[in-house]
């Protein structure tokens, strides 16, 4: 069996001092209290380290190397395989092998990246997203009202999951009744093995298979949704093909179905543990947009990946072509050299520039949508529920990997 959690032997160019044993999927301290473990990593591990877990990879922890890796695409590529390797693989593929979607634009480097980002820009721009406010508010209210009378709920399945998932499926034009199936596929995609090219390829194909029916239906029957809009776009003056549509759809699917959920989970957990903070926001809701930003910094939760494009130096170590680097954004936002007392949630913090949405050319395209959903949810939750707290009898649970995700958030209120 292909054991992706296997220990890799330390390559000769990596000195002992660069090694720190960290399993980003299974580390028990990370799963118990994610951001406390991230702070421990910042204290104990080098700012850039190599771990033998999960086939061996680098981790950029510190604020400076995180920005360096995020921005310098000629050294740290978003392309899953070197182009020549990809061409070889495609040449060897048996005839009739199904197309493997590339999740564009996130898996492209400049200059190609910009061509594939452009068709999405207007749909995710601030104006288009703002127009969705009422729809998001109505959905948030319906979900909160369903649990309000119960005095308790598990916030993740009751509100944090269905809200952004339904907003996104509606935007895409995908059927709401299949949301549980779609979420399961994204969970599997992001689970252990996602950094292993063959596994990732078959998981991406599976997602494309699940949405092809809708993609094909929209080709000749355009509606007011993102899939229809993408069919109308051109890339390099050429019309869309089914393959390019799958490239876009697979990425949006992954980005849209497993991100905001966790932002909501971490934000609401912080509120539940801090009733004074709830009171402050209830008394002055104009603080909510700033609270959203500081919560995103305090509990940053995504970990993008890069492939080393050519032998290079980072954090004092030599990295070899085709090694993997995890950009540990949650650590960069808790780096004490940039954010004094980083563990303190502080609305009056001088430096408010967090990296929760990434940096460089791939900076999150969905940030306006994510921010709006978080702001609307917090506003409505604080209006419709009395002071809520963590359920002392039930633990908050997590899973981890390229997303540090919350599975369960049991809450109580009077
Ligand atoms: C709080 C919620 C979210 C967080 C923290 C987040 C975070 C990120 C990060 C860190 C990146 C950069 C990845 C990289 O450098 O490789 C990214 C890219 C991206 N995100 Fe988000 N995201 C969120 C929500 C969303 C939503 C709701 C959507 C759309 C429905 C979305 C769509 C995208 C897309 C399309 C990209 C790729 C952009 C490119 O390659 O140019 N994101 N996101």
Strand % is: 5-15%
**Range of helix content:** 40-55%
CATH architecture classification: Orthogonal Bundle
The overall number of domains is 1
Q: Can you tell me the CATH class?
A: Mainly Alpha
| Average predicted local confidence, pLDDT | 92
For the CA atoms, what is the radius of gyration?
21 Å
Counting helices, strands and paired strands, the structural category is: alpha+beta
Cα separation of the termini: 51 Å
What's the main sheet like?
A: 5 strands, mixed
Bound molecules: protoporphyrin IX containing FE
CATH topology: Cytochrome p450
What does this molecule look like?
With 414 residues, the protein is an alpha+beta fold. The chain has one domain (23-413): Cytochrome P450 (Cytochrome p450), CATH 1.10.630. It is built from 18 helices and 14 strands. Strand 1 and strand 2 form a beta hairpin. The longest helix is centred in the middle third of the chain and has 24 residues, at 197-220. The chain is globular and about 65 Å long. The protein binds protoporphyrin IX containing FE.
């Amino acid at each position: 069996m292909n054991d992706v959690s296997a220990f890799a032997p330390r390559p000769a160019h990596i000195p002992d001092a660069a090694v720190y044993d960290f399993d980003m999927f299974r580390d028990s301290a990370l799963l118990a209290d994610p951001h406390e473990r991230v702070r421990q990593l910042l204290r104990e591990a080098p700012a850039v380290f190599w771990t033998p877990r999960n086939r061996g990879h680098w981790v950029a922890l510190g604020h400076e190397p995180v920005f360096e890796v995020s921005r310098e695409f000629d050294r740290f590529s978003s392309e899953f395989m070197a182009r020549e390797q990809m061409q070889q693989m495609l040449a060897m593929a048996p005839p009739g092998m199904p197309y493997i979607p590339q999740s564009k634009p996130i898996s492209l480097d400049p200059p190609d990246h910009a061509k594939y980002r452009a068709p999405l820009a207007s749909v995710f721009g601030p104006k288009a997203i703002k127009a969705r406010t009422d729809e998001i508010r109505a959905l948030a209210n319906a979900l909160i009202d369903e649990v309000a009378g119960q005095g308790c709920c598990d916030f993740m399945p009751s509100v944090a999951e269905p809200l952004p998932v339904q907003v996104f499926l509606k935007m895409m034009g995908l059927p709401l009744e299949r949301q549980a199936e779609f979420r399961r596929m994204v969970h599997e995609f992001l689970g252990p093995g996602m950094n292993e090219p063959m596994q990732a390829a078959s998981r991406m194909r599976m997602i494309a298979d699940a949405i092809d029916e809708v993609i094909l239906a929209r080709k000749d029957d355009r509606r007011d949704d993102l899939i229809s809009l993408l069919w109308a776009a051109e890339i390099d003056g050429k019309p869309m093909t089914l393959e390019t549509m799958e490239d876009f759809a697979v990425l949006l699917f992954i980005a849209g179905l497993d991100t905001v959920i966790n932002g909501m989970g971490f934000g609401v957990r912080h509120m539940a543990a801090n009733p004074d903070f709830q009171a402050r926001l209830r008394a002055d809701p104009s603080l909510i947009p700033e609270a959203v930003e500081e919560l995103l910094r305090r509990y940053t939760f995504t970990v993008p990946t890069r492939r080393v494009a050519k032998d290079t130096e980072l954090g004092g170590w030599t990295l070899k072509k085709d090694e993997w680097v995890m950009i540990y954004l949650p650590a960069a936002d808790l780096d004490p050299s940039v954010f004094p007392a980083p563990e303190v949630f502080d609305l009056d913090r001088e430096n408010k520039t967090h990296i929760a949405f990434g940096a460089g050319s791939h900076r999150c395209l969905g940030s306006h949508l994510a921010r709006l959903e978080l702001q609307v949810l917090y506003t409505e939750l604080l209006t419709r529920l009395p002071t809520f707290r963590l359920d002392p009898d039930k633990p908050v649970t997590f899973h981890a990997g390229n997303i540090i995700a919350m599975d369960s958030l049991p809450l109580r209120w009077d």
